[in-house]
Records
---
Amino acid sequence: RGEITLGDFADRLGVPSSEIIKKLFLKGQMLTINSPISFDLAEELAVEYDALVEEEEEIELEFGEKFALEVEDREEDLVERPPVITIMGHVDHGKTSLLDSIRASNVVSGEDGGITQKIGAYQIIKNGKKITFVDTPGHEAFTDMRARGAQVTDIAILVVAADDGVMPQTVEALSHAKAAGVPIIVAVNKIDKPEANPMKVKQELMEHGLISVEWGGDTEFVEVSAKKKLHLDDLLDTILITAEILELKANPKKRAKGVVLESKLDPKVGPVADVLIQEGTLKIGDVIVAGETYGKVRALLNDKGERIDVVGLSQPAEIIGFNQVPQAGDTIYVIQNEQHAKRIVEEVAKERKLAETSRKTITLESLSEQFE
Ligand code: GDP
Ligand code: MG
């Protein structure tokens, strides 16, 4: 049986971590947001939250089941899933160019080319394997989303311009990736420039603990030019090798779970959310919740703007059907039925409002004083 952290668990329940910490504190257990909680404890807590809503038994099953699925995927249900890649680096070092070039060079012949849809992520196929690229500014992917318990990225590509070298945001990106425990591949970009000095990039990054494989370390450096589309294949191969080592797996059979990457209000179709599905399979007609919003999936679009019926593991998609615009970083869950979904978001909204007003006052110290 696996364990999850209190923070993750709170997120899954849709209640602030502070509330769970307080609840446990009052029971004499001092836990923090990072403490692992046992399945039994989690189950005990879930029951308490379910008791808040009317149809006790059903909701209890809802949360209990959701959580059970979270920790106990049967080995035989797990399948390989595509890696999710985030590109990070200093401004102007070529993040956007690299994303665009990789996408453009992977347009399957016969497709009418051109990027029809601006979605927060896209998927390509290399050597018959899918790779998902998430187009969120590196920081958001690692800070905002992580703060909400949603780890999106499997592998970080650190772009460093060979004519500029390691810059402040390079170091910042590096520290985010390290904190998240995500493997880093360095893309030394702009090698087409006469003044490019890839060696200098390697030396500078070594000072930050990233030692290239050639030099006896374990970080892959790939020299590329996003502009001239040089060595992009090498970069993709390196991503696939890294992904293979990670043995990324998930269960496609259960109800879908994912994360909202971006969202907006479309004047024609209403709230639109770009999501990345991390577990299960999302289908038209599924009832969904994300933070304080809920709805029923009315339409699904892939990264090319085509209508699709199902969204699989690590696949990005645009969802139409939310009643309001969900927040980027919110976790999206498929829920049994609309009634339940409505109750869950009501609770989440209530809890978030509460958390808003008490965020600053609830710390472990203030709690212990308060309840002494
Ligand atoms: P971002 O801020 O990291 O997203 O960087 P951009 O992708 O917007 O690129 C910044 C500038 O660098 C643009 O003018 C690009 O055309 C240029 N650029 C990006 N990649 C390369 C490259 O491989 N070679 C050259 N010569 N210029 C590049
Ligand atoms: Mg950019």
---
Amino acid sequence: AIERTLSIIKPDAVAKNVIGQIYSRFEAAGLKVIAARMVHLSEQQAGQFYAVHKERPFFKDLVSFMTSGPVMIQALEGENAIARNRELMGATDPKKADKGTIRADFADSIDANAVHGSDAAETAAVEIAFFFAGMNVHSR
Ligand code: CMP
């Protein structure tokens, strides 16, 4: 089915100047960018976005990393978009990510892991709505 997913290119990958290379991978996999914005997240925004991880030991580091520089946020649309984007990203820990995935190629650590992608349809809808008003999402 045609799905939507929320993708974030994290501060490490933005700093490495690989936004375009990552967008090319989305496009080559049949995922369309239907909304996009660059944001330097506040602590409050990052904490709210990652609220499900609030009790995890890595939460503080996660918020501090995600606010360390601008991120590029996009909604992607396409066949099976949630799983397809997760395949493109590779495992959360770049040391465990398959060869040729975004994280294997561009990430340095489990914190600085280049990209975020929604993990399920329910979270995708919540995450897209967190960053994009409906009028700014351009289904095509
Ligand atoms: P992301 O998909 O953005 O969701 C939460 C982030 O927390 C994750 O990617 C990692 O960058 C970061 N993180 C740090 N340590 C861990 C961990 N032990 N397990 C899962 N995520 C972690």
---
Amino acid sequence: MPHTNQQDHIDAMLHETRVIAPSEEFQARARVTREEYERRYRQSLEHPDEFWSEVAGELYWMKRWEQVLDWQEPHAQWFVGGQTNVAYNALDRNVQHGLGEKRAIVWEGEDGEVRTYTYAELLREVKKAANALLGLGVQPGDRVTLYMPLIPEAAVAMLACARIGAVHSVVFGGFSVSALSDRINDAQSKVLITADGGYRRGQPVPLKKNADEAAQKTPTLEKMLVVRRVGTPVDWQPERDVWWHEAVEAASGEHEAAPLDSEHPLFILYTSGSTGKPKGVQHTTGGYMVGTYLTTQAVFDLRDDDVYWCTADVGWVTGHSYSVYGPLLNGATVVMYEGAPNQPDWGRFWEIIQKHRVTILYTAPTAIRAFMQHGDEIPGRYDLSSLRLLGSVGEPINPEAWMWYWRVIGGGRCPVVDTWWQTETGSIMLTTLPGAFPSKPGSAGLPMYGVEPALMTHDGEELGADDGGLLVIKRPWPSMLRTVYGDDERYRKSYWGEIKGVYFAGDGARRDADGYYTIVGRVDDVLNVSGHRLGTMEIESALVAHPSVSEAAVVGKPDAVKGESVVAFVLVQDGYTVDPTELRAHVTREIGALARPDAIIVSDALPKTRSGKIMRRFLRQIAAGQEIQGDTSTLEDPGVLERLAATPPA
Ligand code: PRX
């Protein structure tokens, strides 16, 4: 069994034996039956060209592909020679199919404002925004960074980029000034789209102010397009800044979607790895479109009258694939909510479900555990009878949270789909298709079409059922990342170079006799805090950038709500004292509040081997308050463990 960061959850999951079958009613109406899954899964592996041609053929291509897959490991090209446009497929195609008057986006602001866009209205907005971007000089292939609240304009901006072939790079609005400028610089973006602010827990977040500061360090940035959301005063540089409402309003409503090569880059999204700075995961047009289209339909059992709500912000991959692209490609009605789950109180999600008659809810275990902590009574006040399917994503869901979600939110009637995937995979890879298979709480389940997973040792030896191992994928799939932007070597090494010939996911997993995969967590130095991916190295770099810190080591500690919390061990620079409050504020400035350490342990030494390697294993045990286990004899100074364990965290 590989080492992972979340031992407690793993123990609970491994002893879980409950099996929850979908109701007969759900099964009878399910889009995908067990037989259908088995037939199509087999087809997808045995005749992949035929399978993927069928799926891609349901979408519109300006030019049909000549070859389904060109695989020159580790580089894949899908639907080679084909030309298409994701925004065209999400909008124009649906309007042509008679969905013009159907609601595409039902958006609710944290302040209660509601805005609705039909498919025809959204198409018009996107065409205007596309023309506005062209007017700012954006060319196909140019990078456009988005730093926005979760407002409809964020989806409009993404689709407008896709429409003209510009590559969007969305930076989560909770990231700091320096995280934003680093990402703009790495992508060499020409345009930044932001807003004056966005609401979070009742307060406007000063996005434009952060963007202004970031722009002082971003030489490639030429223009800033600013949405007016909160109406607070902002600084203005007339030669650089453009109001969204002025530019978009003035732009023409006529625009033909650009025919783009299937492998034309669609977006870059930064995510954390175990080493170095965040990686710009790059996705392309055709394969990503096909992958998100297919999985949204199959996994969420999507039907015409569904009201679908994925709570993820567009700053994360879930917000790309399942708040915007996947559901819109399927012509679904998408609910979007700008704010925090506890604003004004912990009933907000349930109120939104009641008000908009949401039928499908897709959210993260961390949110479920937070709701659970506040009791059954709050959701009990709302009418949740519109719900028919629930989904979970982003981190392992512990069986207790799964059962609570199923029982209290789903009323014991809605299947829960636990979906395992990653920024890199683009779309859902493992899940239990609702209606086709019974769920096992805590276990993601079976591979999606075309996905061939396996468990391996680090040496590439394949393991059998019920052996824990490293999760790998044995063949390319359409929505996989194509490279790390500007660093193909890192792409080769991190994903296809760890274990020869397979995609290395960075997760540990087990498989049971029914073939269900249970993800046990990351096997590398990547943390998952409230479903957000953070690299320990990134946080360490931020800590040592503070003058009072000479060295730092960051580990995760199991947390009942967040999954993991950040624990920092720091050594003090001679002549300084460490002020934990100031250090937390510093990390918030360097990365964002999501990386702020929960506990800081100030010490005079770290457990190192004689060759100077920090033994994080021991730090994790200390952080979790566990007895030290394992061979400490390789440590240069084993006494340091006792001293660290005796130091109260600040
Ligand atoms: O460790 C796995 C965990 O989240 C990682 C991917 O994070 P990110 O790229 O930010 O994408 C999150 C949303 C897809 C994975 O390596 N993870 C994601 N979903 C699950 C999960 N762990 C267990 N169960 C899941 N359903």
